[in-house]
Amino acid sequence: MERADVEPGWRVEGSDGTELGRIEAVTGDEDRDIFDGVAVAASALAHPRYVASEAVGEIFEGKVTLTVDAAAFEHLPEY
Fold it and tell me: Which strands sit side by side in the sheet containing 34-41, from one edge to the other?
């Protein structure tokens, strides 16, 4: 799968296998095929965290794996 295929609602896992939340938004410019990153919400009430494209690892149908673990995810900026 390609980064352009990522959709809101997909599960997100850290590099340590911990489920971190769900994709809330995909950032970039779809018309120009630019992928900047994703906003990941750990819960319905949590503020989403911004994950830059450099921290996005493997992409599978319905799931994105990050290159950062759960501890590092907690220190990412809010979206």
Answer: 49-52, 34-41, 19-29, 11-13, 63-66, 56-60
Give the span between the Cα atoms of 46 and 65, in whole angstroms.
20
Residue 34 CA: distances (Å) to CA of 8, 37, 71, 72: 17, 9, 28, 25
In this prediction, residue 24 carries a pLDDT of 97
CB 12 within 8 A of CB 20: yes
Q: State which H helix or E strand residue 70 sits in.
A: helix 70-73
Asked if pLDDT for residue 4 goes beyond 80, the answer is no
22 token code pair:
């769900």
